[in-house]
Amino acid sequence: MPPRSNIRITARVVGHIDGESVNASGVVELNAGGTIRDLLKQADRALGVKKQKPFKRAFRQGVRPVVLLNGDRIELPEENDRVLSDGDEVSIILTLAGG
C-alpha cells in the first residue's frame, strides 16, 4: 500500500476571544482526505498557538463565528466532515456582538 500523501491547508482565525484580539494564521499539514474537523483539531498545535487555543476557543463564544472555505461561507457543524484539498484556505472570523 503506497504511503498517504499530505495536503497543505492555509488556516486563519481573526477577531476577539474573551476580550482579547486574536490573529493566528499559517499552513497546517493534514493527511490526504483530511476534513474540516481534522483541521480544527490540529490547527492550534500545528501553528504554535496551543497555549492560547484560538481555533478551539472560537467555537465556544456566545456568537457563532463565520467560517470561510476558499472565500465561500460554510456552516458548521453541518460541514465538519467536508474533505479538504491541497491548497484550500479556511478562515474563521469572530464577529463582535453588542447592543
Note the gap between the termini: 57 Å
Shape: globular
- The CATH level-2 architecture is identified as Roll
What is the CATH topology assignment? Ubiquitin-like (UB roll)
| Helix-strand makeup class | alpha+beta
The major β-sheet equals: 5 strands, mixed
Counting DSSP H or I runs of 4 or more residues, the number of helices is 2
* CATH class descriptor name: Alpha Beta
CATH evolutionary superfamily? Beta-grasp domain
What value does the average pLDDT take?
Answer: 91
Supply the number of structural domains: 1
Into which percent range does the helicity of residues fall? 10-25%
Radius of gyration: 14 Å
Task: Describe this protein with a few key phrases.
99 residues, alpha+beta, Ubiquitin-like (UB roll), five-stranded mixed beta sheet, 2 helices, 15% helix, 36% strand
Structure described in brief:
This protein is of the alpha+beta class. It has helices at residues 36-46, 54-57; strands at residues 6-17, 20-31, 66-69, 72-74, 89-93.
Describe the structure.
- Helices cover 15% and strands 36% of the residues.
- It has helices at residues 36-46, 54-57, and strands at 6-17, 20-31, 66-69, 72-74, 89-93.
- Strands 2-1-5-3-4 form a 5-stranded mixed β-sheet.
- Strand 3 and strand 4 (72-74) form a beta hairpin.
- The longest helix has 11 residues, at 36-46.
- The model has no long low-confidence stretch (mean pLDDT 91).
